Amino acid sequence: MFHLINWIKQNKIGAIIVGVFTFATMILIISLAQQNQLTTRPDQVPLRTGPGLNYKQITKLKAGTKLTVVAKNNGWWQVKRDNNQKVGWVASWVANNTKLKTATQLSEATIVLDPGHGGSDTGAISTDGKHYEKTYTLKTALATEKVLTNAGARVIMVRTKDVVVPLLYIPLKAEKDNADAQISFHFDSSESNNSASGVSQYYYNDNSQSLAQALNGSLNNLPLENRGYETMPYLVIKDVTRPAVLLENGFINSDHDFSYIRQSSYQQKIAHDVKSGLVAYLSNLYPNNNGQ
């Protein structure tokens, strides 16, 4: 009798263990399956032939479209629709965006923002010696990040704090993230105080000229004179294959310019003008949103 009771107990424990293991396995399978499922949040999410804005658009997906994720590549997901075996690519940050109502070219873009200088590298200094370029490049870049993120774009910041970033790291980041645009923020300085004023845009490689032109046009709205755009072999825009520009948004050692530079409203104005310039740039680069 004693042996029979032990046998029953042992088998109950075994059955419980098997049951728990089976249940855990089912939960894991369901969890893994859900990880490979995607339901588009915004409307008009482009489905493309490859992982990037430069690939041809196959169609636009309505909000609520159910997709199965087949592969992933730098934020772009290869997917297929439940009712169709044909595959395509979507920008995951767009498809999963719960705040964006309708997808746009800008929302599909990856933008690297580089606030110049930082840490022990103060950059240029105001006429009273109390204000550093690094402070205002960061404030302006952060304002721009917020504006672009609200528009749905994937924004990658080179720095978000007062730290030194090696110059060689900046173009490498744009390459790694396959950025559609890299924008460096700076404030100019003349040889003598209060001897120059205005904003300028710089590029180096041929594939960056149209980006510089678009930003030149949008930055005409600033209260400071637009001195125009030109080529310049700055390291951060020279040693990169991705489209890259450097913006000088006023002379920090000009009391007139600095009266604007220090204002958050001026920084916000730059941010919105940069957004407008990017919209124009992408529209010209990819007419009809169809890639190349």
Automatic annotation (TrEMBL):
The keyword Cell wall biogenesis/degradation applies. GO terms for molecular function: N-acetylmuramoyl-L-alanine amidase activity. Pfam families: Amidase_3, SH3_3. Its EC number is 3.5.1.28. Residues 35-98 form the SH3b domain. The keyword Protein biosynthesis does not apply. The chain crosses the membrane at residues 12-33. Keywords: Cell wall biogenesis/degradation, Hydrolase, Membrane, Transmembrane, Transmembrane helix. PANTHER family: CELL WALL AMIDASE LYTH-RELATED, N-ACETYLMURAMOYL-L-ALANINE AMIDASE. This is N-acetylmuramoyl-L-alanine amidase (AmiC).
